[in-house]
Structure formats: C-alpha cells, structure tokens
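Hi support team,

I've been running sequence recovery on a batch of backbones for a student project. Most finish fine, but this one hangs at about 90% for roughly twenty minutes before it completes. I'm not sure whether the input is malformed or the queue is just slow. I've pasted the structure tokens below so you can try to reproduce it. Let me know if you need the job ID as well.

Thanks,
M.K.
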C-alpha cells in the first residue's frame, strides 16, 4: 500500500472480513466489475487502460473479492480482470455468474439450461485463465428451466473440480432452500441498498444461515439521497455514498457490498467507507428505528 493510501486510511480490510463456505476468507468490501464495460453493459470500455488501472488499484487497496459475470460485455469484464490481474494474488477471490444471455446493450434474456450453464462455466474458466472458479453464481432462476436442473448442473461441475463454491443471484428464500437441498449455497446476490430494502427477509435468512449476502446496486447507481443521509454525511465531512456503504456494512456481518466504478477517484471514495464506523444512534436513525440507543 502506498503512503498516500495509508494517510487516507484507504483499505478494504478496514470493513472486516467474511468467510465463504468455511473455505475462502475475503475483505468485506469487494468490487463489482460490471461498470468496466461499455454503455449498456455492452462492448469494451471507452478507455481500456483506465479499466485495467481501476482493477489493479482495487487490489492494491485491499480488495480481495471481485464479482463479475459472463454477461458483462458479454465476456468483456472477465477478459479485463484476467488481463489486469492474472496470475492472481493468492488471497484474491473471483466470483462470476452465468444464466443470462446479452443480445445487445441493456438487454438480457434467460438461459439457465444445463447445456448453456456448462458452456458458460467453460467459457469463464478460459477467459479468467483459471482451472477452477472460486465462486460460481446462477445469475437468475430461468422461468422455463426447472431450478433443480440448473443447480444440479453447477453441483456436478463442482464435483468435476471446475467450481469451488456455488452461489445464487436474484432469488427468494424459497429458491435458496430448494438449492440448499442439492448443494451448499455460500452466497446470495440480490439488489439491495440503503434506499432499497425489498429483500430484507433474504438478508435476515442469510444471516441466520451464515450465507454471505452480496448486494448489487449497493449505491443505486450513485443516486443515493435523502436529507437524513446528507445530514449525517455533512456532519461527518464525508459523502452520502460513503454513509450508505457504511450502513450496509453495519446492517449485517454477512453483508459483502461490491460497489463498482470505472473511476479510480470513485473507487478510493468507496474504499474509504470501509473505515467509517456509524454510531449506534446513527445506524438506528438511518434504519428508521425511532427508539434510539441511549
């Protein structure tokens, strides 16, 4: 870590750690690599060198969990990660996903069929330059493919040594419970943020069952707002997005936020949030609990 990083307390390690499946321990503030692609999550970035620099800076700042998917680009995000970071540091965990097709900008179609998932895993292994994917997540249950068939495919590829741990994304508690009957589920990735708590019940379920919860859109694409958030941020002399990330980290010990960006400046702002400790009163007020701690 550079002297500048130390002076600004820039370290993802400041947010604590979490262990996935009793096997892989990572710092609890990760990085989501979707925004490194072109507009509409389509095609290459406008500045490839800048995207590479962001990935390398993230690792320099203590990020040990990077989330991606074959649908980001498609393929572009995985290729950038390998170009920037392979051969990977021993403590770096790469998580990727499959089960979507991306036919064009801002478009996705379902395909979690066994044949497609096998092809997707093999493609991710090649692009990421890995012999085994640390965490492989089903992008979303497919409405025309039985969930059991999708999960059994991933379980079989785990037995074949191509996947180490299995995760889910965009799921309900029922989906998690069904999948758990087939293979241990170590992570769940749903949309969740300070301003979007639709999946509170899934967060609570994951906490009870020691499953990592990975909130995607953890900053609402930078549109986090609200007078209360802004007031606390102003008092702390930090940015609202940093308070929003600090709230996520305090919300549950199984929370593993993955804010993404294509800017080193924004990356460093996000990482600074790892060292931001909300008081109990601040947390309760932000959560909407009126009986504040004494």
């Amino acid at each position: 870590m550079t002297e500048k990083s130390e002076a600004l307390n820039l370290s993802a390690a400041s947010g604590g750690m979490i262990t996935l499946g009793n096997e892989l321990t990572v710092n609890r503030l990760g990085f989501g690599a979707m925004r490194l692609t072109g507009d509409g999550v389509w095609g290459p970035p406008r500045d490839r060198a800048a995207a590479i620099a962001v990935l390398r800076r993230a690792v320099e700042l203590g990020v040990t969990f990077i989330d991606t998917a074959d649908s980001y680009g498609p393929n572009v995000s995985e290729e950038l990660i390998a170009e920037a970071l392979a051969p990977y540091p021993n403590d770096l965990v790469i998580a990727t996903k499959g089960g979507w097709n991306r036919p064009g900008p801002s478009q996705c179609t379902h395909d979690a069929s066994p044949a497609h998932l096998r092809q997707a895993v093999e493609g991710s292994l090649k692009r990421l330059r890995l012999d085994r994917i640390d965490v492989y997540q089903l992008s979303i249950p497919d409405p025309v493919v039985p969930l059991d068939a999708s999960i059994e495919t991933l379980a079989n590829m785990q037995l074949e040594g191509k996947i180490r741990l299995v995760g889910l994304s965009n799921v309900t508690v029922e989906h998690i419970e069904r999948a758990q009957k087939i293979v241990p589920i170590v992570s769940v990735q749903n949309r969740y943020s300070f301003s979007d708590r639709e999946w509170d019940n899934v967060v609570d379920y994951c906490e009870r069952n020691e499953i990592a919860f990975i909130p995607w859109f953890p900053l609402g694409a930078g549109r986090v707002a609200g007078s209360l958030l802004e007031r606390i941020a102003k008092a702390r002399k930090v940015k609202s997005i940093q308070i929003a990330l600090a709230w996520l980290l305090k919300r549950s010990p199984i929370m593993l936020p993955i804010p993404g960006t294509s800017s080193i400046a924004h990356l460093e702002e996000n990482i600074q949030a790892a060292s931001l400790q909300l008081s109990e009163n601040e947390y309760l007020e932000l959560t909407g609990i009126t009986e504040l701690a004494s």
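--
Follow-up from support: It reproduced on our side and the slowdown came from queue contention, not your input. The longest strand covers residues 163-169. No action needed from you.
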